[in-house]
UniProtKB/TrEMBL annotation:
Similarity remark: Belongs to the NtaA/SnaA/DszA monooxygenase family.
Molecular functions (GO terms): monooxygenase activity; oxidoreductase activity, acting on paired donors, with incorporation or reduction of molecular oxygen
Protein name: FMN-dependent monooxygenase
Residue ranges of domain Luciferase-like in the record: 37-391
SUPFAM superfamilies: Bacterial luciferase-like (SSF51679)
Superkingdom classification of source: Bacteria
Xref: InterPro entries: Diverse_substr_monoxygenases, Luciferase-like_dom, Luciferase-like_sf, NTA_MOA
Binding site for FMN: D58, T104, H154, Y158, S229
Protein keywords: Flavoprotein, FMN, Monooxygenase, Oxidoreductase
Pfam hit, one: Bac_luciferase
Length: 445
């Protein structure tokens, strides 16, 4: 019996496929992703298994940088249809009672007051179960959708995001916990002394207040962040209650986990109060042979074009302009403005300062099931693999789906009971709020 238990998170998309872009091609994939029932079914499955949190990834554009055209994206269904994740999350939240509900929102294309009110409302309507996955946005197509001509430079996006989160949290904290009275006998609705104006004037934002939403049962939403290198790592360490990471393998995961936990301590944060969870896939069968057959069949759904389209999207570079074995110039490498952790990983793992297109495909594994570590086997084998990672490389896992809803149904039916038998995963929720269930303190004002 373990003294520590895993944090388990479902990685969702409000779109036609899961994180695995070929998932919609799977013969068992549900096709009603435009319906509320789709998200409600997933939420109920996850909650029945006591999964801590479901969070929705998002990008504010479809992939259209490859060939400067959206047609291949539409034809192949490469994340081709994207709904507003906040509304999908709300549908899921109202169909569940304990499952945490997280949504990705950008600090680049919204205003702090809007984000503060949206998430405070989600938090209140779900009884204190909301989480905000903070992203700075990286994609040129997102910029033009919002009337911008270019993406803000990498470090400046984080400078702006620091101020953005500070404004959001100050709005959340501008109401005292007991400011709302609703006392009919005295006629006092809210204590005026328990609500404050913000009057923020910074380098990037101005926001006056007062805020419009009272405090929720958990105080304020959980913050999720995915920065892994350089400025992004500093940002994640400063703000994140939960840090979402991508590790190419266990060895690198252990190094990065130890480094990040050490860094948290160096800036005065309790390393145990920030959960680190890598994205993984699990392909499960009743036997090892059945799982391996399933894995091979799922892998066969991916197409080379998936990788090239998605690499173009996250690196803001049109991969159709280079041959597969053609190296990037130093100038092109310096000009990559997307996810710098992807670029850095390819340079490190290829051993080349000027990798080729093929190196990017091989070492990011973008568009394939192997973009994240894959645990393949029967329930015992998958639990063994998760246990090997747990504690030395992570505090839990972000579970991506090879197809929906089957991946979540298989995992919750087979692997969760095995983890529970080992004492590695909860058999009941600790409380009613997400902070309680993650073992984090409520925040009071």
């Amino acid at each position: 019996m373990s003294d520590r238990q895993m944090t388990l998170i479902a990685f969702l998309q409000a779109q036609n496929c899961s994180n695995f872009p070929a998932s919609w091609r799977h013969p068992e994939a549900a096709q009603d992703f435009t319906s509320a029932a789709y998200y409600q079914r997933i939420g109920k499955t996850l909650e029945a298994a006591k999964i801590h949190l479901a969070f929705f990834d998002d990008r504010l554009a479809i992939p259209d940088i490859y060939g400067d055209d959206f047609r291949v994206t539409m034809r192949e269904g490469i994340r081709a249809a994207k709904l507003d994740p906040m509304l999908c999350a709300m549908a899921m939240g109202l169909a569940t009672e304990r499952l945490g509900i997280g949504v990705t929102y950008s600090t680049t294309y919204y205003e702090p007051f809007h984000v503060a009110r949206t998430f405070a409302t989600l938090d209140s309507l779900t009884g204190g179960r909301a989480a905000w996955n903070v992203v700075t946005s990286l994609n040129q197509s997102e910029a033009v959708n919002f009337g911008r001509t270019e993406v803000l430079e990498h470090d400046l996006r984080y400078d702006r995001a620091d101020e953005f989160i500070g404004v959001v949290r100050d709005h959340w904290r501008s109401w005292d916990d007991d400011a709302l009275r609703m006392d009919r006998e005295t006629g006092l609705f809210a204590d005026p002394d328990g609500v404050r104006r913000l009057d923020h004037e910074g380098d990037w934002f101005r926001s006056r207040g007062p805020f419009t939403v009272p405090r929720s049962p958990q105080g304020e939403p959980i913050l999720i962040q995915a920065g892994q290198s350089g400025r992004g790592k500093q940002f994640a360490a400063k703000w994140g209650d939960l840090t979402f990471v991508i590790y190419p393998n266990l060895e690198m995961g252990r190094r990065q986990y130890a480094d990040f936990k050490s860094y948290l301590g160096s800036i005065g944060r309790d390393p145990d109060q920030t959960k680190v969870a890598p994205a993984v896939y699990a392909v499960i069968g009743e036997s090892q042979a059945e799982a391996e057959d399933r894995y091979a069949a799922i892998q066969a759904l991916a197409k080379p074009i998936d990788a090239l389209v998605l690499l173009s999207e996250v690196l803001n570079f049109d991969f159709s302009t280079k041959g597969y074995d053609e190296a990037f110039s130093s100038e092109e490498m310096d000009g990559i403005s997307g996810i710098q952790a992807f670029r850095d990983r390819v340079v490190t793992m290829s051993g080349r300062a000027n990798p080729t297109v093929g190196d990017f495909v091989e070492f990011t594994r973008r568009g394939t099931l192997n973009e994240f570590p894959v645990f393949v086997g029967d329930a015992k084998s998958v639990a063994d693999q998760m246990e090997e990672w747990f504690g030395t490389a992570c505090d839990g896992f972000v579970l991506a789906a090879s197809h929906v809803p089957g991946s979540y149904e298989d995992f919750t039916r087979m692997v969760v009971p095995e983890l529970q038998r080992r004492g590695l995963f909860q058999t009941e929720y600790a409380g009613s709020t997400l902070r309680e269930n993650l073992g984090l303190p409520a925040l009071h004002v």
